[in-house]
Write a structure and sequence with these properties.
By secondary structure, this protein is mainly α. The protein is 77% helix and 0% strand.
């Protein structure tokens, strides 16, 4: 601790020039100053983190409020589709669209049932299979979700969101290595650079190397800005990293491009 003579030259004096009483006072004042600054920095950090979470939460609330305004419209649409199915129970689009409406209304059991019916009507389409797997992931039934996503991939290996959902389900049941091996095989077979970067991002995400995953996912979006699957993964990635503003931004983008994923 140093002392300075008041109104004297700026020359630094030796500590011994200060009296013991004054030296003790300076030490005490400095200690309180340091403690005050540490408390201030801690409170500032807490407020910033709370503000990030509150911003993301408020954005989600606003989204839910907007969705609530569509409730009556959705109920009318459900009624209309049910009337179509009464006269044509094998209508693929009606079953699939009804599943979408139920899922949007958080009626996941009803949604799963309609996706299954759509698959029975059109077993060559991967779309209702993705819906089924997505619902099973939401129900935490990951063991049932994995074969559904694998079947969807067998139909269409170019649907990139399947890899993300399948990887998530595999990770939940401890088959992370299987997911990574699948991604690596697909990279070797793919000539599309946006898909390659996307899959590399998934590999690093599965390895919990989030910052590296972010780099590859951004590269995929530089090549293909409307790469829905990359936006979906970045939403989840940023949310897990506490970057809620970025998470919501990517959520808004992929919902505008493809509102019914």
């Amino acid at each position: 601790i140093f002392c300075f003579d008041t109104f004297q030259s700026t020359q630094l004096h030796d500590l011994g020039h200060c009296s013991k009483k004054r030296g003790g006072l300076v030490t005490q004042v400095n200690r309180y100053t340091i403690i005050f600054h540490l408390i201030f920095l801690f409170l500032t950090y807490c407020l910033l983190e709370y503000d990030k979470k509150e911003t993301y939460a408020n954005a989600i609330i606003q989204k839910n409020v907007s969705s609530a305004k569509e409730t009556y419209k959705g109920e009318d649409e459900i009624k209309r589709i049910k009337e179509i199915l009464e006269s044509n129970p094998d209508n693929y689009e009606a079953h699939y669209n009804l599943g979408i409406l139920y899922e949007a209304d958080f009626k996941i059991d009803e949604a799963l049932n309609e996706y299954k019916k759509a698959s029975l009507v059109n077993p060559t389409s991967e779309v209702p299979l993705i819906g089924q797997g997505r619902i099973l992931n939401k129900k935490s039934d990951y063991y049932s979700a994995v074969p559904i996503f694998e079947k969807a991939l067998g139909i269409n290996q170019k649907r990139m969101e399947i890899y993300y959902y399948l990887g998530s389900a595999n990770a939940k049941i401890g088959n992370q290595d299987n997911a990574i091996a699948l991604f690596q095989r697909t990279i070797e077979e793919s000539r599309d650079q946006s898909s390659v970067n996307y899959l590399k991002g998934l590999i690093h995400k599965e390895k919990d190397e989030l910052e590296i995953a972010e780099v590859f996912l951004k590269k995929a979006l530089m090549i293909e800005p409307e790469f829905v699957a990359a936006h979906i993964v970045l939403e989840a990635l940023y949310s897990s990293m506490g970057m809620y503003g970025d998470a919501y931004r990517h959520a808004e983008i992929h919902r505008k491009i493809n509102p019914f994923r």
